[in-house]
């Protein structure tokens, strides 16, 4: 089992991990020849949120070399916080301080009898001398049986696809809603309307965005084959709002991906679930997409 | 004691207090006519910090009046004013957001309780902080000053095998930034000083929590980053906790002063000096045992320390776990249960002084006692870990010795690894 790559775009890599770090303590990363998948599918996640992401390795790495008995795929579990810390050090805050990184090499290694993912950073100190930093993140390589069990959740075809307003704008609102209610209703229609609402005994808050764009297509993901039947959509009332009730905490955690998102498409399956596609980089490029699955909550009323 | 700080002196003074607050909770004030010292020790007695301001630092400075009591322990018998209070009490006054903008000068005075007046306990004194601000506003704060019960201070290290390094604060800060900082943990770092490069890596002793072991970091830099690099014998490896070290670096960086590091063998504490204008600071951080580290051989009595200026007696104390030591009757009772420490250092000061010698009975790797017990033993500063059962009984049953009776005792002759007999300092 061999794995080595030079990280070209450490800032993006850092932000991707930043987006999902708060979701789960340990996440799973699957490296294949072309794609890096980051999976957070723990059952204990807030509100049942799951992330399945696919990033093209070309958009982040160069000199990418992978070799394994499992079709050159390596799947590992590691602590998200540790990975984040290593990447933070590698991406170095642009304070104008410290040093500039010359090269960052990520590779699979064994230290003290334990498998680690090593990040070797060669940089320059403030005074211009070479400085070498190495971070070893402990990993657990998953057995093929466990890897086979990793399956993306199955969802019905969504009722509406809408492009969300910038996540940075939505975030402060949900931040305010979070202490008020555990559940948040997300509604959208095919006429560009998006609503976030909470209703409790003491308070009810509604927030609405208009003039959002709708889209018929979800990203071409093998898991979500959709046939864009334009006729069928036209027959429906475009003003009809489709809603799903989700855990406010989980939605807020999803909003952490504002650090990395360019475009985000929300798909709502009425009363069932919500799927959010967060694009990393250009929509057209499809360099990478983080897919968030948030199950709908069923309340007795 | 009366001291006046102008606005420009108040800034470094406040920075010093900030640093002191990161080391320990209690601030010990020791004022002599020549200088004012502020010091603190952390709760596990593994780190000590002392700021000494020469009288020239202040715009006005005077210590001792006809009424002030004479401090008994001062070597040269001059009057010294001492007191102790919570660092944060003083710091919160000086760090108030209005201070920077409007304070023109700050007057500190210590008024001793004289047994008359409202004070029940005549021995209590007050620290009065008077802030003279713009527009004629004067803010006066009165803080209760507790008596300084025991003055803990480190001894000056022996210099034969001393390694000496000087480094700019920015350089060190850049280095340490690479190590993930965790608010809840206090990681230890291992420093390996070699010929041409220095290696710093996260160090986990077996006692550290497992959570942190998810990530381990290693940094390598050239020795040229150091302004002065004089290592007694390479390679030398030392390990210590980061928390207090970071406070020191923050202070040095805020004052743009270089750090002067000195250490001897890996088991002895790390001494850091930061010298500024009319202000001289000393930081001592205890080091941890590094398994398999190269320990240069040296004579047992090497680590005896003697602090010349402080009011401590001429004690020669061997290595013990703490950076500073204090023994009192209460801790003696706990002695029996404790054991081994992985932190080391050596200084002392206290009424009772007991000689110890090189590690004997309790080897660091021994599993006779738990780490918590270890700590307690070390905390007593009695050097129990180095005693035999007989010695221990003798000590427990004997009575405390008086400070004044101590002469310049050198233990060298009586201390050898083979000699297990306890030589009490004085006969009761």
Automatic annotation (TrEMBL), chain A:
Gene3D superfamilies: 3.70.10.10. Its main location: nucleus. This is Checkpoint protein. One of its GO terms (cellular component) is nucleolus. Residues 224-234 have a biased composition (Basic and acidic residues). GO terms for biological process: double-strand break repair via homologous recombination; meiotic DNA integrity checkpoint signaling; mitotic DNA replication checkpoint signaling; mitotic intra-S DNA damage checkpoint signaling; nucleotide-excision repair; telomere maintenance. It is found in: Nucleus. Residues 212-234 are annotated as: Disordered. Keywords: Nucleus. PANTHER family: CHECKPOINT PROTEIN, MITOTIC AND DNA DAMAGE CHECKPOINT PROTEIN HUS1. Coiled coil: none annotated. Residues 212-223 have a biased composition (Polar residues). InterPro entries: DNA_clamp_sf, HUS1, HUS1/Mec3. Belongs to the HUS1 family.
Automatic annotation (TrEMBL), chain B:
Transmembrane segments: none annotated. InterPro entries: DNA_clamp_sf, Rad9/Ddc1. GO terms for cellular component: checkpoint clamp complex. SUPFAM superfamilies: DNA clamp (SSF55979). GO terms for biological process: cellular response to ionizing radiation; DNA repair; DNA replication checkpoint signaling; mitotic intra-S DNA damage checkpoint signaling. Residues 291-316 are annotated as: Disordered. PANTHER family: CELL CYCLE CHECKPOINT CONTROL PROTEIN, DNA REPAIR PROTEIN RAD9. This is Rad9-domain-containing protein.
């Amino acid at each position: 089992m061999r794995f080595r790559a030079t990280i070209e775009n450490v800032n993006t890599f850092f932000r991707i991990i930043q987006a999902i770090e708060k979701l789960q303590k340990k996440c799973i990363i699957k490296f294949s020849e072309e794609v890096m998948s980051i999976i957070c599918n723990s059952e204990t996640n807030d509100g049942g949120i799951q992330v399945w992401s696919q990033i093209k390795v070309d958009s982040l790495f160069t000199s990418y070399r992978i070799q394994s008995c499992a079709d050159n795929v390596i799947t590992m579990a590691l602590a998200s916080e540790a990975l984040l810390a290593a990447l933070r050090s590698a991406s170095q805050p642009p304070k104008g301080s410290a040093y500039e990184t010359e090269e960052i090499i990520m590779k699979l290694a064994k230290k003290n009898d334990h498998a680690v993912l090593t990040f070797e950073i060669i940089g320059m100190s403030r005074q211009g001398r070479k400085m070498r930093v190495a971070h070893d993140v402990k990993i657990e390589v998953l057995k093929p049986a466990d890897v086979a069990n990793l399956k993306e959740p199955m969802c019905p075809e969504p009722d509406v696809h809408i492009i969300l307003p910038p996540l940075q704008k939505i975030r402060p609102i949900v931040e305010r809603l979070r202490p008020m209610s555990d559940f948040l209703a997300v509604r959208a229609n095919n006429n560009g309307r998006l609503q976030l609402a909470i209703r409790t005994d003491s308070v009810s808050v509604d927030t609405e965005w208009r003039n959002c764009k709708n889209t018929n297509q979800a990203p071409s993901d093998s898991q979500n084959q959709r046939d864009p039947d334009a006729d069928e959509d036209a027959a429906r009332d475009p003003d009809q709002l489709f809603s799903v009730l989700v855990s406010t905490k989980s939605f807020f955690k999803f909003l952490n991906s504002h650090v990395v998102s360019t475009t985000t498409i929300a798909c709502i399956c009425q009363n069932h679930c919500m799927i959010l596609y967060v694009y990393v980089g250009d929509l057209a490029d499809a360099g990478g997409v983080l897919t968030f699955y948030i199950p709908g909550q069923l309340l007795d009323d | 004691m009366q001291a006046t700080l102008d606005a420009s002196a108040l800034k470094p003074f406040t920075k010093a207090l900030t640093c002191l607050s990161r080391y320990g909770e209690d601030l010990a004030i020791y004022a002599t006519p020549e200088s004012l010292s502020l010091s603190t020790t952390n709760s596990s007695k593994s780190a000590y910090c002392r700021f000494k301001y020469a009288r020239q630092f202040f715009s006005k400075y005077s210590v001792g009046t006809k009424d002030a009591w004479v401090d008994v322990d001062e070597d040269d018998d001059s009057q010294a004013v001492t007191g102790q209070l919570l660092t944060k009490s003083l710091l919160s006054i000086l760090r108030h957001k209005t201070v920077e903008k409007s304070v023109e000068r700050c007057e500190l005075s210590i008024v001793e309780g004289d047994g008359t007046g409202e004070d029940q306990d005549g021995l209590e004194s007050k620290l009065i902080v008077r802030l003279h601000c713009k527009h004629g506003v004067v803010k006066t704060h009165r803080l209760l000053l507790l008596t300084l019960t025991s003055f803990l201070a480190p001894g000056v290290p022996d210099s034969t095998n001393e390694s000496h390094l000087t480094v700019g604060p920015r350089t060190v800060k850049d280095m340490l930034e690479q190590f993930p900082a965790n608010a809840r943990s206090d990681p230890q770092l291992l420093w390996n000083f070699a010929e041409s490069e220095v290696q710093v890596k996260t160090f986990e002793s077996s006692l550290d929590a497992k959570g942190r072991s998810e990530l381990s970091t290693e940094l390598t830099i050239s020795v040229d980053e150091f302004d002065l690099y004089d290592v007694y014998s390479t390679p030398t490896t030392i390990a210590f906790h980061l928390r207090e070290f970071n406070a020191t670096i923050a202070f040095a960086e805020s004052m743009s002063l270089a750090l002067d590091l000195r250490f001897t063998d890996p088991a002895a504490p790390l001494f850091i000096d930061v010298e500024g204008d009319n202000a001289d600071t000393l930081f001592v951080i205890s080091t941890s045992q590094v398994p398999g580290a190269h320990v240069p051989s040296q004579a047992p009595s090497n680590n005896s320390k003697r602090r010349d200026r402080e009011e401590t007696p001429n004690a020669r104390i061997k290595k013990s776990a703490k950076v500073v030591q204090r023994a009192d009757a209460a801790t003696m009772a706990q002695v029996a249960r404790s054991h081994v420490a992985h932190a080391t250092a050596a200084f002392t000061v206290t009424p009772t002084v007991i000689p110890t010698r090189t590690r004997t009975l309790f080897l660091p790797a021994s599993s006779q006692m738990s780490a918590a017990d270890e700590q307690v033993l070390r905390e007593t500063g009695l050097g129990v870990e180095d005693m035999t059962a007989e010695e221990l009984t003798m000590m427990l049953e004997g009575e405390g010795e008086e400070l004044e009776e101590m002469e310049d005792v050198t233990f060298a002759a009586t201390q050898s690894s083979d000699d297990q007999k306890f030589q009490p300092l004085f006969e009761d």
